[in-house]
Amino acid sequence: MMEHVRLFDWNAHVTERHFVEETDLDNCNIEKILRNKFYDPLISSDSEDEAPNKLNWDEIFAPKTNNNDKMFIPCLRPLPPYPKLSALTHHQHFQILKVLSEENPHILPDFPMHKPQKQDHKVYEAVKEIYLKEQKEYIEWAKSLWFMEHCIRTLRPKPAIETVYEAEFKVKMLRMSSLPKQYDIAAQIPLESRRKTCEAVLKQELITVNLSDTPFARIPDNINKHFCILRASAVPEPCPKHPYQFVLPNEKSVSVLPTSEIHRELAQYALTNGAQYIASENALKCLMQQNRPWTIPISVCEAIGPDGDPVNVVVLDSEFAATKECAQMRTLKAYRHLLEQSLIPMKEKTRVWKNKKEGLAPTKGQTTVEVDESSEDEDNMFICTDDDTVMSEMETESVTPHCYKKIDSNMDKKNFDKDAVGYFTRAESKKISESINDIGFYNCTCKDSAYENPPRRSFKKWQFRSKTEVNHDIIIHCPHKARSKSGGELLIEPIVDYQLDLGASKQTTDSIRSLALSLMLRKNASVVIARVDGRTADIASITTMSADKFTSTHADIARSVPNIVYTALGQLQGLLPGHYVLQHEVEHGMNGLLLSVCRGARAPQLVLAAGAPPQDDAKMLRQPPEITPELLPYHKFRKTIPCAFTPFEKQLVKEPKKPAPKKKAPPQAIKLQAEQPESGTTRKVPSHSGDLFNELNECSA
């Protein structure tokens, strides 16, 4: 025992474990992390040339997110009340969905989906007839839901939609203020002739527009977040100084002339360039749309030809509304305005506004006009003003800069940076116009606003030819509003879906025809079709198609565009000078009513009045939107195919439980027996064997 005690080193140093030494801190990983001196151990120590890579610990310790679990699905709504199961199985739905996803790669591209194999295509071809039959049943079921529930969605547009439409409606009413107010029926004319084969040929580009002067529209490739177009945006306001915001082809600034005078100027411009007609793109697009009511003004003006003889020229102006349109059209036009405002960034609007201001800025210096006094033309004659008139003009010119100096000083006091914003707000521009007193009654409300200058227009001369009849030369002017990244022009068109929970609404033939006309009038243009939920204004999908692809997809419809324009121009030939209105209703079919100024004592057919009652919504609601088998993002997410019933039994609408059977009232005899008193107090019924019976027998004896 003592030997073991001797072997033990009693003086040996015991390591301290209760305190941390400096060497321990140097080798501690936590200390290295705090000092940001922790190096990745995977880097070889032999490579001295590699710089130490510092780790971003905020990113490392951040909570991990799974993109698939939190993927945004546009316009994902609760399941509709499916009445029956699909004739196809769940596996067949998935196989068909893989084929449709390959045909539509722009629909929810971030969602993982396997590529279809040969077996999937075989299954799709095998069950195609069953699928088409189920599509018809599904579409009829959707129509029944429209009349029962969904039609009420169109009758209640949101206040923001009504505000946008009201602003545009007031501008159009002011534009028509200089035209006659009462019209009567003059004739009924056809708008389409299927027997004719016509073609359109571009003869000359009179005025072109540089697309760099148009704003750039940012089209999202993938809708990975909530995108609602119902947002605060600038709306046009009626301007008494500029009743018709139009830039004449020979001018650079917005004209102050009324509509009737602008029609005369356009007629003279058309005759100078050898055309008998001049029309706006909007007027020709109305001719393509026969499924909705529209009204366009027509003026036949006398223009002086090169020989000095008057020649009648037909002017077709843009659409206007004599009364407020139905709820569906109000929503569509407001969504078109809001969609354009949402896709164009604010920086682009500011850049375009500044470029227009710089282009329209007057140049300093005096201009001299040389007049040939030997010529006897009336154009060289001028009026010599008095000294008082000249002095009054000089006084007005001297007053104008002081007003602008006062406005600039007020803006400086508010520290308002005009160049940073790009344009004033409507309230500020209104204050500016009110402070300028030298204009008089015609105050400008569009000064320094987003709508001070309308979109630039191009003027092109077209010829619509027919093999059997005469040719028509027409000048068509088109506005250019947006461009793409590649430099081509963009046409933005919304499709309003009121039954998006059931499927996508089919684009009407008239809408396709009007887009085909717009593409025909432009070079290197594309169409941006956005599906918008009618209730919430959320965008479900955005599709961009080039002009060639759009025309090839709808070749039969696009082929009828020149025929309609040629037929309408032929019917308007030979009209007497004056103002007319071409009106179309849904019940007219392929015809239209030509209205002339009411001169007799008969009641007018059309009255241009601001307080006229709105159109009846019942006419448009009688035609429910047709559902089309187009793939939507939620189809891909739920792994179901469009225009088909659900393959899952759990998603069927549950039948309401039958109420519990009511307890029937007991018979009257049982009620009376229950109401009798207790057995101890009841009177006993005498029996035949009782004493009372014997007593009665004795009495009778």
UniProtKB/TrEMBL annotation:
Residues 652-701 are annotated as: Disordered. Residues 459-647 form the Little elongation complex subunit 2 C-terminal domain. PANTHER family: LITTLE ELONGATION COMPLEX SUBUNIT 2. It comes from Chrysodeixis includens. InterPro entries: ICE2_C. One of its GO terms (biological process) is snRNA transcription by RNA polymerase III. Pfam families: NARG2_C (PF10505). One of its GO terms (cellular component) is transcription elongation factor complex. This is Little elongation complex subunit 2 C-terminal domain-containing protein.
